[in-house]
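Folds abound. Consider this:
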Amino acid sequence: MAADTIKIVNDSDTRVLFSNFNAGDNFIPFDTLWLDPGKSGELKTGNFNALSIGAQVQEGGRWIGGDPKNKPYATPGDTVTFTISKDISG
């Protein structure tokens, strides 16, 4: 993996849209990536030293795991894994 990317792992059973932004931002993404369940891919980091990472399960949906503008931030070369679970008990 190149140092100018961040590896994203979708460790869920849901197709997810991933986005990255300059750290502290969540407005216009620098790069986006749709990942199918159980797949991984890479987001470009440009010249940012720290990046906010966000995940959505539908376009225009709510951020999963918190607002990407809030810490913790990722750095180029990092791996970010998202796990989404739905538990039903009777």
